[in-house]
Write a structure and sequence with these properties.
Blueprint lengths: L3 H12 L9 H11 L7 E3 L10 H10 L11 H10 L8 E4 L1 H13 L6 E5 L4 H8 L4 E5 L8 H11 L2 E6 L11 H9 L5 E6 L15 H5 L4 E6 L12 E4 L2 H7 L9 H11 L2 H26 L10 E5 L4 H10 L2 E3 L9 E5 L3 H16 L1
Parallel strand pairs: 1-10, 3-4, 3-5, 5-6, 6-7
Antiparallel strand pairs: 2-8, 7-8, 9-11
Helix pairs in contact: 3-11, 4-11, 5-6, 7-8
Length: about 375
């Protein structure tokens, strides 16, 4: 396992110096897109953001606390952690609150990965865990997705067993494919975890899934299994720029993660989350309903035009453009629509985030123009 000192050194050498050691070439190409000169009215459908932004109650809470943001507000954070933990039926000793779910993934890798305990990950998926593991000197074992574009749980378990243990990473629903690993597969995986193996489930997009095959892995945390679940307020709650996420695990696992925590959450962000949790069910249901309507409209348009895509269960989807997606994406950007970065080996697949209705109208127009050449 990484020491706190080596963890900090790896972050300083890799993450804070430009991420060159953490990100793949496609991801760096996406960063170049952001830094390029682009149309002022650019439509950004490249980062799975929520165009609704923070709920109104959160905006009001942030405005109220802003004049006192000169203080740390340390005395408030114990209640804040309790509220976040209580929102998923856990105690504060079973929850780690960090700067987005990315920090939770980072800390889990630091706590449970090592030269002898690799990260075993599905591919393609969110690149950050594998990038971090590589920066920390932790081996990475990549397992191709199933034909349904979700995790091959039997192969993941086989690789963990061959390695003598490790950290298995699953993004569910998966980024970039928006496919769901069925609940029976997750149940089998938990029941068949090899010795010295921890399962890390990234549920950043779970609130957008409506299929009965989707089930949160939080049930296994409550049962005391070797499972960590990462959640975020960036997606359904529209707080990506506020950077609040949390991890859930039984207390013994959590105690191994705590030494790596940063412990820094803005009071403005904390108040925004607290306000949203007061009306969480209504916020989640309303936003899921609106997103589903826009997503379904896009899918219907794609079917009508004969374009193939992966059935989505998140706030994005992947479309088969029939040719290299890198050049396709560049042409889209020149027309004022930014789309997702390439995700090898799905080099003919274009990931597009679901935006507002007006955004998707711009997308459809640009997509058809580029597709037809």
């Amino acid at each position: 396992m990484l020491s706190r000192r080596s963890f900090t050194r790896a972050i300083a050498a890799g993450w804070l110096s430009g991420t060159a050691g953490l990100w793949s070439e496609p991801a760096l190409a996406q960063r170049a897109l952001v830094e390029a000169e682009l149309p002022q009215d650019m439509v950004w459908l490249n980062a799975n953001e929520n165009p609704e932004g923070p709920p109104q109650v959160s905006l009001a809470a942030m405005q109220e606390v802003m004049p006192t943001a000169w203080r740390y507000h340390f005395q408030e954070f114990r209640d804040f952690y309790r509220r976040v933990a209580g929102s998923v039926g856990l105690s504060s000793s079973e929850v780690y609150v960090g700067q987005g779910s990315s920090e939770v993934l980072q800390v889990a890798i630091a706590a449970f990965g090592s030269a002898s305990h690799p990260l075993i990950t599905m591919e393609p998926t969110f690149e950050l865990p594998a990038g971090l593991a590589g920066a920390f000197g932790i081996p990475v074992v990549r397992v191709p997705l199933t034909s349904g574009y979700y995790a091959d749980v039997k192969k993941l378990v086989e690789e963990a067993g061959n390695a003598g243990g490790g950290l298995i990473y699953i993004c569910n629903p998966n980024n970039p494919t928006a496919a769901v690993t069925p609940k029976t597969d997750i149940a089998w995986l938990v029941s068949n975890l090899p010795p010295n193996t921890i399962l890390l489930v990234d549920e950043a997009y779970i609130h957008f899934a409506e299929t009965p095959e989707m089930e949160s892995a939080l049930r296994y945390v409550r049962e005391g299994k070797d499972v960590i679940v990462a959640r975020t307020f960036s997606k359904i709650y529209g707080m990506a720029g506020l950077r609040v996420g949390f991890g859930c695990a039984r207390q013994e696992l959590m105690s191994r993660m705590w030494p790596y925590r940063s412990g820094v959450i803005s009071i403005v962000s904390a108040r925004a989350v607290m306000a949203a949790l007061n009306d969480a069910q209504a916020i989640e249901e309303g936003r899921r309903k609106r997103f589903t309507a826009v997503r379904n409209e896009l899918c219907a348009w794609l079917r009508g035009k004969g374009f193939e895509y992966i059935e989505p269960h998140a706030n994005f989807l992947m479309i088969d453009v029939g040719r290299d997606v890198h050049e396709f994406s560049q042409q889209m950007a020149r027309l004022g629509v930014a789309v997702g970065r390439p995700f090898p080996p799905l080099t003919n697949m274009l990931r597009v985030s679901i935006g507002a209705e007006s955004d998707m109208a711009r997308f459809r127009n640009a997509f058809e123009r580029v597709y037809k050449g």
